[in-house]
Amino acid sequence: MTAGTNDDTGFAELGLRDELLKALTTLGYEEPTPIQREAIPPMLAGRDLLGQAATGTGKTAAFSLPLLQTIPAPGGDNPSALILVPTRELAVQVSEAIHRYGKDLGTRVLPIYGGQPIGRQLRALEHGVDVVVATPGRALDHISRGTLHLHDLRVVVLDEADEMLDMGFAEDIEAILQETPEDRQTVLFSATMPPRIDGLARSHLNDPVRIQIGRAPTAAGEAPLVRQVAYVVPRAHKPAALGRVLDVEAPGAALVFCRTRDEVDQLTETLNGRGYRAEALHGGMGQEQRDRVMARLRNGTADLLVATDVAARGLDVEHLTHVVNYDVPSAPESYVHRIGRVGRAGREGVAITLAEPREHRMLKTIERITKQRILIEKVPTVADLRARRLELTRAALHESLVADDAALSQFRVVVETLSDEFDLMEIAIAAVKLAHDAAAIGDGDEEEIPEITLRAPREGDRPGYGSGPGAGSGDRPGRRVSVRDADGRGRGRDAGGRRVPAGGMTRLFVGAGRAAGIRPQDLVGAITGESSLSGRDIGAIEITDRFSLVEVPEGAVDEVIDTLRRTTLKGRRPVVRRERFNQ
Ligand code: AMP
């Protein structure tokens, strides 16, 4: 493989032009993801496309790359492409991605969303942009002001269409599409395909190519029987979270998968800084370098190998104890393939996945396809780390005591002399402290990692179009933030400090809390495992020592109570009822 080019990694084969290939090389993408492989050629050929794919599959590049190649050269007065997305967060993310991919083409891209001063958007639109990435409400606002002209559009993308419909944007989308040319190319991506999405596709897409990612049936049992856990962590906290997880797991030899070369290099550096012996392996490295790295892992001078999928291909490492997905893999097949590297020949293996809150759904897809549970666990706390380090000190002392080490006798005189003055227990405690401090890497510099119980916030971008359900509200049912502050306080409380349920939501009282070992994921698991709700339907969760409070949609209250009453939580059947206000 030639280092540093995409000529032989598959992107060029898809028909992408040099400027885009160069950008992908710079970003460290080594090969197309399945959705990219399937979506790019038909989009380049001008076909409409209906794609079922969740966040984490690489869908943004799947539609952005062909779009950048097919729209007219930059410089026109009006936009050539419009991408509609449900949230402000996604608008920014997608426009940043397009900016990076289209850098050498000189493509001008602008995110427009509610909440940002409209003046800045007006000025940018006046100067001319090629691609607009917008939330529907704000797009319609600009159309009615006459500041966004859609008659030169070549491509329209509806991204996360199911989310947009859930948020009540159906009428806005219809109104926007009315303003676009008939002969435009239309692309629709959605994580789910409910009938409403089918209806939207039937009325606005012309003989679309259909793509589904995550539907290829994997024979049950094909995925190895390894302990599969995931941690939901915001991107910024991932390096620290992985460090903690590895400290607690203490892998013998682990393979850590990253998406890009840059990520491989950065993470290797971070892990080395944490005291691990980590080695990077990616497609940009020569064979000799790769051989050297592999030898270090085999002979135990390295304990972690950080690699991209491409680099790890064909790599045969015996005795791997852990596989880590630093990102959720872009397809379930890739997950199965990666974790197939542990748990071989009857050995125990652990597969760890770090997911961003938005990628929660991709984990569900993988579970569905592999027919295996992935347990969502809490990132170890600083207290967990301390306990683990104490345990290591205890184990080291135990080993020393059972080793019948003759050299120990030279210390007897120290203990005997001190025992004239101090109690034996006190002497032992002081000695353990010294041993512990000498061995432990400092506990003090650990950053706070917020605990995520559900998905990250969504922006309600509705600047006053009072049409669809939930209009004007930025706080829709099932969209609540439930990131807890470090001290456990949540947001959205009334004057008495009581949390106010989101509109359309009801709070349930569950008579078991922290003291019984209940964690948010236990409640989510118990509810979603047996009822018709999915994790995203559940609102804020509050756990106190004695009890827990869970917000669920009003219409599903009876079902959820019934479900929870039939389920055991940490081995018990706690009281479950609607919350009363004298709790
Ligand atoms: P998306 O599903 O579009 O949200 O993309 C998920 C992540 O995958 C983003 O961080 C992208 O930068 C990254 N990504 C997309 N395509 C590739 C690829 N072919 N190789 C490596 N990373 C990719």
Poorly predicted spans: 1-6, 215-223, 455-498
Output mean pLDDT.
Answer: 82
- Helix share bin: 25-40%
The major pleated sheet works out as:
7 strands, parallel
Strand arrangement, major sheet: 3-4-2-5-6-1-7
The CATH H-level homologous superfamily of the largest domain: P-loop containing nucleotide triphosphate hydrolases
Strand content: 5-15%
N→C terminal distance: 65 Å
Described by the principal axes of the CA atoms, the overall outline is globular
Give a verbal description of the structure.
- The chain is globular and about 95 Å long.
- It contains 20 helices and 20 strands.
- It folds into four domains: about 35-215, P-loop containing nucleotide triphosphate hydrolases (Rossmann fold, 3-Layer(aba) Sandwich); about 225-380, Rossmann fold (3-Layer(aba) Sandwich); about 385-440, no CATH class; about 475-583, Alpha-Beta Plaits (2-Layer Sandwich).
- α2 (about 35-45) packs parallel to α3 (about 60-70), α6 packs across α8 (about 170-180) and α14 packs across α15 (about 360-370).
- The protein has helices spanning about 20-25, 35-45, 60-70, 90-100, 120-125, 135-145, 160-165, 170-180, 195-205, 240-250, 260-275, 285-300, 310, 330-340, 360-370, 380-400, 410-420, 425-440, 520-530, 555-565; strands spanning about 50, 80-85, 110, 130-135, 155-160, 185-190, 210, 225-230, 255-260, 280, 305-310, 320-325, 350-355, 375, 450, 485, 505-510, 540-545, 550-555, 575-580.
- Helices cover about 40% and strands about 15% of the residues.
